[in-house]
Design goal:
Keywords: DNA-binding, Transcription, Transcription regulation. Residues 11-79 form the HTH gntR-type domain. The chain is an alpha+beta fold. The protein folds into 2 domains: 13-76, Winged helix-like DNA-binding domain superfamily/Winged helix DNA-binding domain (Arc Repressor Mutant, subunit A), CATH 1.10.10; 81-238, 3-Layer(aba) Sandwich (Chorismate lyase). It has 8 helices and 10 strands. A 6-stranded antiparallel beta sheet has the order 4-5-6-9-8-7. A two-stranded antiparallel ribbon has the order 1-2. Strand 8 (207-217) and strand 9 form a beta hairpin. Helix 1 crosses helix 3 (50-62) and helix 2 packs across helix 3 (50-62). The longest helix is centred in the first third of the chain and has 14 residues, at 13-26. The protein is elongated. The mean pLDDT is 93. Bound molecules: 2-amino-2-deoxy-6-O-phosphono-alpha-D-glucopyranose. 2-amino-2-deoxy-6-O-phosphono-alpha-D-glucopyranose is lined by residues 90-92, 147, 149, 167-170, 211, 213, 224, 226, 228.
Length: 243
């Protein structure tokens, strides 16, 4: 038996190889963005079949720890961003807290008749107009999410493209002096469609996290409905729970 693997433990070999690879990544022997040894090299190193190695590597690819480049090899992925589920924060604040630089690529800034579901969620009348703002949210030059924001026009009559290039929350709170009080968020798993994949720089059908947030100002006035698509290979959501 290869000394790198333990035989008297009820842990499958592929699992032990996964742990070994994760440890090497933690110890920075395998660095982010660098190629890991090939399946052939690993199967020789561990003296196991290539199938076993492939299973370990595939599991780590599925977990977002590694990624494959067709015809080249397998590389170490960046660590996922851990996003707490508590606390009503903005993208700009989240990135700042992590020491990352945030920016946005504005894809659309329109005033439209609210789609039915948005109209209901924002308690608008039939004629209610909303801004429909589509932004790619970028952290340190990498696309993290695509966000479509709907906000009642009458609440924010002076909103401009310039403002939404920056932080909407900052504008609402600091420039308009309105308090954002709470939000409800729904998170669902999905596969990226062609457009999302292109904007997020991932392959079509890759897993993404779809988040819908409806936020309120004081006195429970709804002010935004936001549909966001986050890269599932870059994000994980963390929550503490009490019993
Ligand atoms: C996050 C939320 C959105 C919110 C946005 C505001 O991305 N998912 O619902 O609208 O933050 O961000 P900013 O203030 O940076 O524009």
């Amino acid at each position: 038996m290869n000394p790198l693997l333990k035989k008297n433990v009820p842990l499958p070999l592929y699992y032990q190889i996964e742990e070994y690879l994760k440890q090497k990544i933690e110890e920075k022997e395998f660095e982010v963005g660098k190629m890991i040894p090939s399946e052939r090299e690993l199967s020789e190193r561990f003296e196991v079949s290539r199938m076993t190695v492939r299973q370990a590597v595939t599991n780590l690819v599925n977990a977002g720890v590694l990624y494959r480049e067709k015809g080249k090899g397998t590389y170490v992925a960046e660590k996922k961003i851990e996003q707490p589920l508590k606390g009503l924060t903005s993208f700009t604040e989240d990135m700042k807290r992590r020491g990352m630089t945030s920016s946005s690529l504005l894809l659309a800034f329109d005033v439209i008749e609210a789609p039915r579901d948005v109209r209901k969620k924002l308690d608008l009348s039939e004629e209610g107009k909303v801004y429909c703002i589509q932004r790619i949210r970028i952290a340190d030059d990498k696309p993290m999410a695509i966000e479509t924001t709907f906000m009642p026009q009458e609440l924010l009559p002076h909103l401009t493209e310039d403002i939404v290039h920056g932080s909407i929350y900052q504008y609402v709170e600091h420039d308009l002096g309105m308090a954002i009080s709470q939000a409800r968020q729904i998170i669902e798993a999905r596969a990226a469609d062609e457009e999302e994949a292109e904007y997020l720089n991932i392959s079509p059908h890759s897993p993404v996290l779809h988040i819908e947030r409806k936020s309120f100002l004081a006195q429970s006035v709804p002010f935004e409905v936001v549909k966001s698509t986050y890269r599932a290979d870059r994000y994980k959501f963390i929550t503490d729970i009490d019993r």
